[in-house]
Amino acid sequence: MGVLDAFDKEQKEAALNATLVVFMADEAGRQQVIQALRQLNISDAYVAVGTINDLIDHLGKMERSPERLIVDISGLDKPLDALDQLADACDPSVTVYTVGEKNDVTLYRLLLQAGITDYRYKPLTVDALRLWLDDRDGYSVRQARSGKIIAVAGARGGVGATSVAGQLARELSAGGALRKVVFIDMDVFGGAGTTLMGMQSNHAMPEVLDSVANLDAQFLARVLTTTDDRMYTLGFNNAFDQPFQPEPGAVAAMLTALSQQFHYLVVDLPHAGGMVANEVYSRANFACLVSDTSVHAGRVLASLIGHVRGYGHDTVVHVVLNAVRPPVKAQVDPREFTKAVGHPVTVAIPYDGKFPALAEDLGEGMAKESQMAKAVARLARTLTGEVVDDDAGKGWIRRLFKRAA
């Protein structure tokens, strides 16, 4: 290998391991940043000219996400949409700064609400860079970027909550090329979740709950189970004579820590109530409550909706109706059920007697023609904001319960 080849290799390795990555819209902006970084004596940086899509491509080649990103949003018609795509490409723990041409207070506020740490209009000065790179804690009052926590609970046993949770995790993972999703099974005695995800049950949960302060990427790589570095599982596998009760606050702290490492956390709750469930609700961005249309489930669901709202003041509740039995003439009218519950239905899953059970036995995702797969795909797009919730869309009752013979 020649001297120039060795130099090129060294430059490429540095670009793929930089802790600071900067993408500017033009060469003039790039040169300004390079000069400023030299004045600040910062060498562990990669500065390039390109779009957000170019930045996403570069992040896909890196061995690990950088600590900080600076991205130029000049000229973008929909910067928030572009930044949403960027959010899927890097770990939630990455601090993201933006620069642009507009001195716009409204844009500034929208960017902060979206989780961007700060916005400056060009030119980007040495003092601005020094502030960004010297003191990350200075922005603690602003909304931090973190992954979304999704609680999934059944109004009663046997309504398919775990099947919905598992398929939801798969859909979220498949929805973004660089998304990292963790499926968390809170069944102390080892639920069906890890089998459903095609992985072996692990017993990492007790260690994780005891080590919340140390949940960095290296620790999680050791204790979590994955087959593709995108979908992970975490759970218990206690013997039936080994009950486990976490310390108060441990579950909530664990979820907060994991949300800095994953884009989505899907938490499968074996019980809709109790200390563990309540701590999950207190941190959840979304609660997906799965129910059939039985009288008992309706009563429990109505109470559960109020309970979840009491613990998670900002938690968005989504009701998922799952027809776990073939339609019959004497069943409860879905319209009356919805009226009694007092909450709209986000998605309704028609009876699917084949694919959920087959997927669990095989440890694979459900076939595309599966009624549950189609409904959960819509739920996933609703949670990510790709489609607007319209109370499950027109005709959901007809789709849920076809006329009984």
UniProtKB/TrEMBL annotation:
Gene3D superfamilies, per the entry: 3.40.50.2300, P-loop containing nucleotide triphosphate hydrolases (3.40.50.300)
PANTHER family: SEPTUM SITE-DETERMINING PROTEIN MIND HOMOLOG, CHLOROPLASTIC, SEPTUM SITE-DETERMINING PROTEIN MIND HOMOLOG, CHLOROPLASTIC-RELATED
Pfam families per UniProt: ParA
Record keyword Coiled coil present: no
Entry keyword annotation includes Iron-sulfur: no
Keyword annotations of the record: ATP-binding, Nucleotide-binding
One BP annotation, GO: negative regulation of cell division
Name the UniProt record assigns to this protein: P-loop NTPase
InterPro entries: P-loop_NTPase, ParA/MinD_ATPase, YlxH/NBP35
Domain of life: Bacteria
GO cellular component: cytoplasmic side of plasma membrane; cytosol
Molecular function GO terms recorded: ATP binding; ATP hydrolysis activity
